[in-house]
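It is worth pausing here to work through a concrete case rather than discussing structure prediction in the abstract. The textbook approach is simple: state the sequence, then state the predicted structure, then interpret. We follow exactly that order.
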Amino acid sequence: MRGELPEIPESLDAPSFLRRVLQAALYERGEGFARLLPHLLDVRLPAQYLGGEFGAVRKDWDSARFGLALGFPDLYTLGMSYLGMQILYHLVNSPEEATPTRAVAAGGPYLCERFFCPDMDMKELMERKDVVLYTLESKRPLREFDAVGFSFTHEGTYSNLPRMLRLANIPLWQRDRRDEDPIVIGGGECMLNPEPVALPE
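Step two, the predicted structure:
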């Protein structure tokens, strides 16, 4: 972690509570996020890109054995209402003694952080400022995680998968990924039959 919090640009006329959220968001790995910060009020619903909500979990990165970036391939306002994602987030981040079956957290601490599909205005801003897709909790790029999971609840989100992988700078095809790239996982109701998103080699 950094020794001191970065300064919030004075050009961002933010209320004091928002400034505190922004400072917390910048604390660990906010290099890319810091480039977005002066422009956040130029996008719609900027709070969806901040994190720090009530119930959000921030765990120590260095002590985690495995890091999972858990994503919803649609907007934050839709993804946060999906209870399946909330349950997975809670289970992976729970200490071993608090996990109902102890199957998820057995053997050491696991870490789970969230990400969502940015709206078009934010996507364009990220591309313009050369910022890759990051998680809400630590603002780390998705590529730094051991696994990146997507939860598909309806077929309309299929097309957001390649868009988000490109924005995260993760190769779209498994054959193009290297050992240092994260494992990409698909889950949710729509993955009971993954054939619609399977393409011939």
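Step three, interpretation. The first strand starts at residue 66 and ends at 72. The radius of gyration is 17 Å.
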